[in-house]
Amino acid sequence: MDAAASTVPASVRNNGFYLGMSVAIAATVIGGFGSFALRGFVDVGRVPYWVHVHGAVFVSWTLLFVMQNAFAHRGSMALHRRMGWVAVGLATAMVPLGVVTACMAVVLNRVPPFFTPTIFLALSALELIAFITLLTGAIRLRRSTEWHRRLMLCAMVAIIGPAFGRLLPMPLLGPWGGLAVMSGQMLFVAAGVVHDLASRGRVHPAYAVGAAVILVEGLAVPILAATPPIVWLASALAG
Length: 239
What we know:
about 240 residues
């Protein structure tokens, strides 16, 4: 090992697990939305332009998430930090794009068939809140590698619910669909917990934070969907 490599902390050099997790998450996202289109559930040619923009930004974020883990895995931390600000820019664009796309889906009656408009709006809102919460924590704690990479992983997991919704047989799951999606998300968190136990002998508290946020995100969807503001918004947009 050369001198430069020897100066890289073990916590950075030995994080192939996080690279593998980022690839698995990217495969879930691309596989979910890609298979949905290939099965004929969406006419790509007739999709509004803002949906394409939203999709392009989200895919770019997903691929950058993989790249960032690859940079960290090989110890290229200077490049990782520079690209981190690109990631912040993409994340900043994802939030308003997510809001516009969700609202316009209701306006144009393009809500996925396994969601009601109220559930779709509630899910979109809670997903963005969970993402912002975990991402903000990860950015604030970026100098603490152990917190940063776990919160980034959980932030990514928080926004892949729609991908699971397109992979799972949602019409057959009925009222259990939301729980199934959340369970799929929690599998990624569980993998992180198992890895911590195997590699450190204990679970880092970042996973408790991430799991709590993701559980609240999933369990609160039907509650928020039934509130007067969401019911009114869904009706106003559809009308």
